[in-house]
Amino acid sequence: MISYWHAAALAHLAYAALVVFGALMAWMLSVKTAELRWPVMIYIAIIVVMGVAAFGTGRPVLIVAALFFIVSDAVLSVELFALHKDAHWRKFTPYVVWSTY
Description:
The chain is mainly α. α2 runs antiparallel to α3. The protein contains four helices and no strands. It has one domain (4-100).
């Protein structure tokens, strides 16, 4: 069984990973979103807070669901704002989104 201190350390690592992921997404999308920059930045912040809240519950089903939602939204945002219209990766994005949404 995992101790309280190990669980707390893992939770803090998860929180930090979510914040870093959100910062990287914000950095990558800030130059690509033009007039939608601020709504996108606010949405990224909301998604990160949702992920932190899910991890804070300690319930595995909520954590997995939040992670799937984060992955699907990240793929959608990259597809919409960052990928070129003819990018090879566009063949795979629908499958990732549908399997994680």
